[in-house]
Amino acid sequence: MNPKKKTSKPRKSRPYSAGQMNKLVDDLVHPFYKTSEWYRVADGLLHGLVEKNIRVSAKKFVKYNLPEIAKKILRKI
Asked: Rounded to an integer, what is the distance from CA 22 to the centroid of its chain?
C-alpha cells in the first residue's frame, strides 16, 4: 500500500510585502497630516489593515499618533 502524498496548494505570492505596503501608506497619508487630524486616524487604520494585528496596531497608534492628535486639538481650544 502506498499512502497518498500530501500535496500543498500552490501559495499565492503577494505583489507587495507588508513593509512595502506600510511604506506606501506612509507615502500617501503623511503629507496630509498638517491638514487634518483625521489623516492620522486613517493612517492608523490603514496600517492596522496591513499588519492584521489589532493589539500591535492599537499600541502603535496610541504611542505615535494619539499624542499628536491631542496636541492639535488642545491648540484649537
From this structure: 6
**Grid coordinates of 61:** 497608534
Q: Which residue has the cell 484649537?
A: 76
Look at the pTM and tell me if it is higher than 0.85: no
> Cα(49)–Cα(47) distance, rounded to whole angstroms?
5
User: CA 58, CA 60: separation in Å to the nearest integer?
Assistant: 5
75: its cell numbers: 491648540
pLDDT in tens, 29-71: 999 988 888 999 999 999 999 988 889 999 999 998 899 889 8
Do 72 and 37 meet the contact criterion of CB atoms below 8 Å apart? yes
